[in-house]
Specification:
mainly alpha; 6 helices
């Protein structure tokens, strides 16, 4: 679509969006998605293999191993992909670096990312610099059986859930104006599916952490009760 004010072609919604510095990608959608899912797959596979080794990590069950894999993938996506956006959001529309092109492709599902929308910049910056490192920390904590591992799981998951809810709710209040509503790829896959994961999985992990921490506190209370009775 030709922007009437600047004569710049861009594929984003709303159609009258002004993006004077926009340069079209020279990488295809398949190249960009292949990179994203292949690297995420490598993180998942390597973490799965590590957590399956005998010894320190051999005690982890299938469910726990999957949770650790999730945090490893989150560390990559938050720290690298979203970290890039937090640093270069102001030049992404005209930049041809691979990760900038990834964000320009994703922006077909949410154009707030090519206009440096205040909410997306703030939300992605917090996500990148807090939940990215914390996710890798959680992987380490579970692999080494740290006593605070479920505290980390709870903190990270609450942060992810809060960010995702605000992400959807702010766009809902804008009337889903930044995407082609109903488009099978850009709306349903990019905008909905790739983000709703950060609502569903964190919710499951919050419940899991709640149970684990409650059980630990119950054990501590019972131990104290037994000791007081003996005294």
């Amino acid at each position: 679509m030709m922007d009437s004010a600047t004569g710049v072609l861009h594929p984003y919604w709303p159609r009258d969006l002004l993006i004077p510095t926009y340069v079209a990608n020279d990488r295809s959608m398949s190249e960009i998605l292949a990179f994203l899912f292949s690297v995420s797959g490598v993180f998942l596979l390597v973490t799965w293999l590590i957590t399956g080794q005998k010894g320190t990590t051999g005690r982890l069950g299938t469910w726990r191993r999957l949770a650790v894999c999730w945090f490893a993938v989150c560390g990559f996506i938050h720290g690298v992909i979203e970290g890039w956006f937090s640093l270069y959001y102001d030049i992404i529309p005209g930049d041809q670096s691979f990760l900038s092109q990834l964000w320009k492709e994703y922006s077909k599902g949410d154009s707030r990312y090519v206009i440096a929308d205040n909410f997306t910049v703030c939300m992605e910056t917090v996500t990148a610099w807090l939940w990215g490192p914390f996710s890798f920390w959680a992987v380490f904590a579970f692999l080494t059986n740290k006593p605070y591992r479920f505290v980390l799981q709870l903190i990270i998951s609450l942060g992810q859930l809060y960010g995702a809810v605000l992400y959807f709710y702010t766009e809902h209040r804008d009337g889903y104006a930044h995407s082609e509503l109903g488009h099978p790829i850009y709306f349903w896959f990019y905008f909905v599916f790739m983000n709703v994961l950060w609502i569903i999985i964190p919710l499951v992990l919050i419940v899991d952490a709640w149970r684990q921490l409650s059980a630990a506190q119950t054990h501590t209370d019972n131990t104290k009760s037994h000791k007081s009775k003996r005294n």
